[in-house]
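RETRY 2/3 - previous attempt timed out on the joint model. Re-submitting the same 428-residue input unchanged.
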Amino acid sequence: MARRGAKTEIRGARSGDPGGDGGLPPAAQAILGLLSLSEASGAGDGYGYDLARQFGVGQPLAEIIHLEPGMLYHHLKRLDRAGWIAGSLEPQGSRPPRQIYRITDAGRAELRRWLTEPVARTREIRLEFLLKLYFARRTDPDLAAGLLAEQRETFGRLIISLSKQRASLDQGSAFSESTPDGDRAFVREVLDLRLAQTRAALAWLDGLVSSGAA
Amino acid sequence: MARRGAKTEIRGARSGDPGGDGGLPPAAQAILGLLSLSEASGAGDGYGYDLARQFGVGQPLAEIIHLEPGMLYHHLKRLDRAGWIAGSLEPQGSRPPRQIYRITDAGRAELRRWLTEPVARTREIRLEFLLKLYFARRTDPDLAAGLLAEQRETFGRLIISLSKQRASLDQGSAFSESTPDGDRAFVREVLDLRLAQTRAALAWLDGLVSSGAA
DNA sequence: GGGATCATGTAACAGGTTACATGATTCA
DNA sequence: TGAATCATGTAACCTGTTACATGATCCC
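RETRY 2/3 succeeded.
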């Protein structure tokens, strides 16, 4: 079981990907977003320590994501290697030199792609969707409006799908005849919980739209 | 930056703990639960391949947790090292031998402790609480009723806490005066989402109780 | 003189995902 | 004959957490 002479060439296909959409982890997207905003509106200077402040306590981003300095510098290196950002060392005189990062054209395209796509799963609304909403609004109101519309449609479809699954459970098509009653009732409860959570998320999205916060 | 001559003695305090309560990861608790049930009710034989079947498609557990064989065997080894379960190699004649695991007294105590404690965060209801409910019901109806009651109280307190945070935002105690209006409105929306999700979870719990599914 | 701040990281560890390794046996 | 099943794992990669390393300078 020692993997001798294996064909370890195949290395694409990103493993260990919790996000699910094959893209960057949410923290990296947030860094990309901050670097984009700092260029557009001059808020922030684009180096590690300054970015760390924007993720620190009292800042709005800290309400949805926690990013320790270690992971922040890790993501900066990966984004640089991937070509989404470009770093340049700038001496500070007496202070230690700073690695200043700027978002590249490829990085801007990647960010825009991310800001356009809604999240697929209900649990992703707490972290990933809130990040998208935060940066979409600060980038372009139309982008935020489009994201909101897409997200409402996605969750609307998800609610229909879950409802169908729940209905078919009572007809017994899924989960063969032999499934114990207790197990069947449990699966029904699991679906009810998912429906309740998704409906609550959709209602919250509707509230955002009707309060005009595009 | 090379960590020369460091005092690396301090090594307790479990790092990298996503569960949060300092205990075993949910998947390991589920394995412990299955081994406990297989002793009590004779369902299951207590070796890796058989446990993998109980996590496979079509089984109720597969609706809430995905456990690949690799991680399953990993958790079995860790549970064995920790003393919660005890393995013994049993030859099968022509078939490959099986590592049969049985839950120990310490393991039963750990499982009971886990089944007694509600989850602290709303997002943990989807995975960890559903697992607790599943095993608590199949272990002892009183245990399940107690867990449900504790969980409702925990979420009730959480809702009060979130409501207070939201109210204090409007009074401006948190987030100093200088915080931009957009940021303040965003934090309000984040709190609204958390409230909506927690209220939906609590309503679902209330539904479980009133439908008599203790 | 000494602690907070500036600035960038590394080390060790934990959980998780996907793919692959190994070798027998049963069954179509 | 060859695919599915039985049975147990390893390898390589990923994200994430906590703690520590390094060395300057600012401010009390």
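Chain A touches chain B through 34 residues (CB under 8 Å). Closing ticket.
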